[in-house]
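User: Show me a protein chain along with its predicted structure.
Assistant: Here is one chain, sequence first, then structure tokens.
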Amino acid sequence: MLVLRTAQEADLDAVFGMARRIGPGMTTLKADRGALRDRLALAASSFAGEVAQEDADYLFVLEDLETGQVCGVSAIKGAVGVHEPFYNYRIATTVHASPTTGRVNRVQSLHLSHDLSGAAELCSLYLDPAWRKGAAGRLLSKGRLLFMAQFPQLFGRKVFAEMRGFQDGEGNSPFWEAVGRPFFDMDFHEADDLCGKGDRLFIEHLVPRLPLYTHLLGEDACAAIGQTHADTAPARRLLEQEGLHFDGYIDIFDGGPVLQANLHDLRALRASRLAPARAGTPQGAMPTLVASTGRHAFRVVVADTDPDCPVVVLPQVALDALGVGAGAPLRIMPLSSGGLPQRQ
């Protein structure tokens, strides 16, 4: 059985191995062993409630309990852009009309923004290719949202996720070549690495402040605006199922879309509910996300149960995976978005 659980410092080797396999473009999970060791320590302090919201970093791993293998990672940052601005481009469209010629032009432009400063960020999602089947990806992505539903007081009113932007077959970013390189005078991977190490001050110093008119950037760069990396497309679909949407903000490096939602509009907050656990064989069962309710040892599994039953009836193996006994409160939500129960 697979379980999504809070990351531990003993997971360093596994997380580092996954970070090495990711490739360029995921700023929040770089293959830097020292930085990952620090991040796991910060995650432990975050789950323990020992850090402020703007510093909190809730890191989760997906583990196969039969083999002990850690095969996935995902995270939630409590708030971004509090200590320093968190930049995106906002897409705007202006209409220019000439009464004398009768011409009307719609011009798209990019405006530097830090509107998302203070919002929670869903980030660092990676699943080992060998496990990209069944419910593993949905557990890894959606399971962490039950943590937000259980502890909404830990987050602000808005949540977002930056999707990796389009790259060509050779790993080049057309958006970066047209927008980033002329102003930053460095390779995409170098800028991405600097951000991954927490050095964002160079953005403030070098990024252009005036709007950028997209029709001047070239066809390849324009086509890349708001487009998702092929490897990230499945992750985008999962987040859209949970209530996040594209609202005209893009990453300043690769032009990838930024999905966002109000925290309380997420399906996990609208539709999950609490119910006591009981060991047994459920009737009318359907695949359901089932989470324990402890902050420090938060765990989520996918199990067949009746999401409408007043009591969560689960096989003993599922209760053992969650680390709970009969009568313990559990937070549940159907794995798919159909047939939502009422939230309690």
